[in-house]
Amino acid sequence: MPTNRRMNVTGKRLVTTALLMALAAGVAGCGTSKLTTGSIGRTSGKPLETMSASELHSATTRLGESYAKNPNDKRLATNFAAALQMDGDADQSLAVMRKLAIAYPKDRDVLAAYGKALAANGQFESALDAVRRAQTPEYPDWRLMSAEAAILDQIGQKDEARQNYRKALDLKPNEPSILSNLGMSYVLEGDLRTAETYMRSAAQQPNADSRVRQNLALVVGLQGRFDEAEKIASQELSPEQAQANVAYLRQMLAQQNAWSQLKDQDKGKPATN
Fold this sequence. Notes:
InterPro entries: TPR-like_helical_dom_sf (IPR011990), TPR_rpt (IPR019734), UCP035836 (IPR014596)
Signal peptide: 1-27
Strand content: under 5%
Structural class: mainly alpha
Radius of gyration: 18 Å
Organism: Mesorhizobium neociceri
CATH class: Mainly Alpha
Keywords: Signal, TPR repeat
Number of helices: 13
Strand order of the largest sheet: 1-2
CATH superfamily: Tetratricopeptide repeat domain
CATH topology: Serine Threonine Protein Phosphatase 5, Tetratricopeptide repeat
Shape: globular
TPR repeats: 142-175
CATH architecture: Alpha Horseshoe
Number of strands: 2
Distance between the termini: 36 Å
């Protein structure tokens, strides 16, 4: 079943409770946040991406209180920015990362996270510049390569993106965040079977995290295998969350099919003057 960029962005937000883009920067990771993918951050021992909307909002508030006391703490600021992104406040997320980038202008991890935040706000050229400035040819970083590839995917440069993903895999073989992002590249193109191959490989790695498995659930669901998608999602989410996600995915796909049918009907109508 074909998909498109819009469907993919909607689906990713659904399954991960809001991340965007899959800027998984080893992310992502991001990311995303994918923009990757180890957990973006944790609070009370629970990964942000598995929280309900109310839990995420509460966690974001607590992170914000801690951030206000120590805004130059890299880990804290990055986690706060990621939580804001997932909670739907992309503008504040970018403001937090911009401030951190000013405080750490040569820090590769900070610049990578800043690039992801820029990409999540649609500022792709600036995002590429930030990630590329963080990279050093003599000591290439696979996380930065994966982040750059994810940004390139967002602007439709899939061939260059996939070259970067494969270079990143040369540096870090079988890294689940890279494999997952490469799979998302094929989702954006509508090649769900190839996407699932990479997603399954990513999910089978011993260091695969929640977002990797949630992306697998997404690509399975996009192919209409809803029971299987719910089973995968329920390994990471509560049964209620997994059921709600799959129900929303069903609705989203039904709406897309309805729009496609209307477009086909319009095409079949005779032109009128």
